[in-house]
UniProtKB/TrEMBL annotation:
Pfam families, A to Z: Ank_2 (PF12796)
Keywords from the UniProt entry: ANK repeat, Repeat, Signal
Annotated protein name in UniProt: WW domain-containing protein
One Gene Ontology biological process: protein K6-linked ubiquitination
ANK repeat residue numbers: 96-131
Signal peptide interval: 1-27
Length: 401
């Protein structure tokens, strides 16, 4: 039984809840009714107007439960599909009956391929099923001239996922406009408020160690560093600082002033704080820009409760309490053992490597072990930056400093 004071509190609480409902109702996000109507009418100026409404979420169904992107694909309107994706429409949606990619592939006209490419690039899944259980991929008509391009696209998707359709690192620039991020592509003249897929990669860390990379737009996940994030801050031969994408071998057009649009702020700050950081692998004779601590799939983590170390495999998801054999290499120098590690490059007589788990012995440092790497700085890094820059210029890629 409620005491009277409790009853008063309860009544006040109800009143507050009612108020909350009212304010929630008045703050209701704008509806997509006008947007869907413009798509249906194929009126692009009305569509642009509808899209410019502040606070509009293009992923909200209209009052007849129609999703804007599904309706744009149904109308075979590439321009509308593109405009919606640029406003952050999610390509991997379903309205419960079908998906935009199903509709794009069913279109079969000239709009099918460009529409499918846009959707795949933004994370549409060709293995998703419609209400009848048919995958989008199964809708590509068997060998015909028109389906060749579509089949080729599906092959690319199977090999690399949405990333296969990503713009090259450095293609997009990021600016602040009206307090929001704004992206533009100087080569194509495209601009958009929502990040393009190449600028939507995020690094996921656990206890400070990279575990995986997730694209917040396409939903793609990978444990190896995507090319979009493979940037390093380097010093050019003339002493100026620049951003180098070592995977794509391009330098950023935003050069000294701004970090590349692909980099999340935290990662950019981390890289900027440690310019010219590279390692030389004495076994493979290659320079790497990534920390050799992450040369294998194993990450050393600490058990939250006990503080005891354990090892987590980012590829298999396995966790083990014993150091994995891949990491168990100890350097043995004659007369005693020690981990002089990366300090000694090349071969020293009486120096060998012993695996404390497998018992294996090797005369040269195993290529993925920390012993194989030497951190390099200064002149060597500058020379490599110059070489990379020259390679960029020679390759005909745009070089803006
Ligand atoms: C398209 O939309 C614009 C703006 O809402 C409107 O003025 C125009 O009459 C529409 N055009 C057609 C053909 O309906």
């Amino acid at each position: 039984m409620l005491r009277s004071t409790d009853r008063v509190t309860a009544a006040a609480l109800l009143a507050l809840l009612a108020l909350g409902c009212v304010s929630a109702a008045s703050a209701k996000p704008p509806s997509t009714d006008r947007l869907v109507a413009a798509i249906k009418a194929k009126n692009f100026s009305a569509l642009s107007e509808a899209l410019s409404v502040k606070g509009l979420d293009v992923n909200t169904p209209d009052s007849s439960r129609r999703l804007p992107l599904v309706e744009a694909a149904r109308s075979r309107d590439v321009r509308a599909v593109s405009a919606l994706l640029e406003q952050g429409a999610l390509a991997r949606v379903s309205d419960g009956t079908t998906t935009p990619l199903h509709l794009a592939l069913l279109a079969q006209g000239a709009a099918a391929a460009p529409m499918a490419r846009l959707l795949l690039a933004h994370g549409a899944d060709p293995t998703a099923k419609d209400k009848s259980g048919a995958t989008a991929r199964s809708l590509v008509p068997a060998a015909s001239a028109a389906s060749k391009e579509l089949s080729e696209m599906l092959k690319q998707w199977e090999a690399r996922g949405a990333m296969a359709f990503e713009d090259a690192p450095g293609d997009w620039l990021r600016e602040e406009r009206e307090g929001a991020a704004y992206f533009w592509n100087p080569a194509t003249g495209e601009s958009r408020w929502s990040a393009p897929p190449s600028c939507a990669w995020q690094r996921v860390t656990v206890q400070g160690h990279p575990i995986k990379y997730v694209n917040s737009l396409t939903g793609q996940e990978t444990t190896s560093l995507p090319a979009a994030l493979a940037w390093a801050r380097v010093t050019a031969a003339d002493g100026s600082g620049l951003w180098l994408n070592w995977a794509a071998r391009v330098t950023s057009a935003a050069a000294a002033t701004q970090p590349p649009a692909e980099l999340p702020a935290e990662l950019a700050a981390e890289l900027a704080a440690r310019p010219n950081r590279r390692w030389y692998n004495t076994v493979t004779r290659e320079f790497v820009y990534t920390d050799p601590a992450y040369a294998t799939a194993w990450r050393e983590l600490r058990d939250e409760a006990t503080g005891a170390p354990y090892w987590f495999n980012v590829d298999s998801g396995a966790s083990v309490w014993e150091v994995p054999a891949e990491l168990a290499w100890a350097e043995v120098v004659e007369g005693g053992s020690g981990s002089s590690g990366a300090a000694a490059a090349g071969t020293t007589s009486g120096r060998y490597f012993h695996n404390t788990v497998s018992g294996e012995v090797a005369w040269t440092a195993p290529e993925h072990s920390a012993h194989a790497f030497v951190e390099v700085q200064g002149a060597e890094a500058e020379a490599a930056a110059a070489a990379a820059t020259a390679a960029t210029a020679a390759g005909g890629a745009e070089l803006l400093l």
